[in-house]
Amino acid sequence: MRIDIISVVPDLLASPFSHSIMKRARERGLLEVNVINLREYTTYARAQVDDYQFGGGAGMVMMIEPLVNAVESLQKETKYDEIIFLTPDGEQFNQKTANNLSLKNNLLLICGHYKGIDQRFRDHFITKEISIGDYVLSGGELAAAVLTDAIGRLIPGVLNDESSALSDSFQDNLLAPPVYTRPETFRGWKVPEVLLSGNHKLIDEWRHEQSIKRTQERRPDLMDE
Question: Which pTM value belongs to this model?
Fold first, then answer.
């Protein structure tokens, strides 16, 4: 899978993909991540990519021309399955979306900044708009990192145990059950006996029951879905 990310501050994305699971995915050739500096595609002086918004109002707006230049240049080499704009007013990102996007071959993520991007670019180039939550960040880079991590870990071969991702929270609209490891007893706090029983049928039933209980307590809205 290939994920290209257009940003005005590409250095913000140097670390998230250079460690742990994302690093291994890239080293194994399973995931290619390219961060593109939008300022390299502007024709304005001092690498300008934003300007005042028409009609007045606080905040600068990312101009359409540099964005179009960047996207059309990239499209000469890559056919994108989705061109995604990270924005607070996009659809809420969830595990189902991550699952669907992990089946794609090429994704292009656009990181917004300032007050946003020229609406004409959204109208004519963006195929999907995604928000990672009901709050505003300084830019879309952190959101792009979240998407890339959530999608990348689902690619077959990225996780050492591929079944691990199938038992994650939200995969079946349930939160994951409690987990335990050694020692069996710590300060008098014991691991549930069923997990030590070796009876996998009972263990699976216990975990499912705990998932339902946790979801009912913490995210009852998921039960409705």
Answer: 0.89
Residue 205 tokens read as 């039933």
Q: What is the CATH number of the domain that holds 201?
A: 1.10.1270.20
Inter-CA distances, 72 with 76, 125, 148, Å = 7, 10, 22
Give the helix/strand (H/E) hosting 50: strand 50-52
With respect to residue 86, please indicate whether it lies within any of the assigned structural domains.
yes
Cβ-contact 145, 16 below 8 angstroms:
yes
**Structural contact between residues 143 and 111, judged by C-beta atoms closer than 8 angstroms:** yes
Lowest mean per-residue pLDDT among 34-48, 89-103, 150-164: 150-164
Contact 141, 7 (CB under 8 A): yes
Chain segment 94-147, per-residue pLDDT in tens:
999 999 999 999 999 999 998 999 999 999 999 999 999 999 999 999 999 999
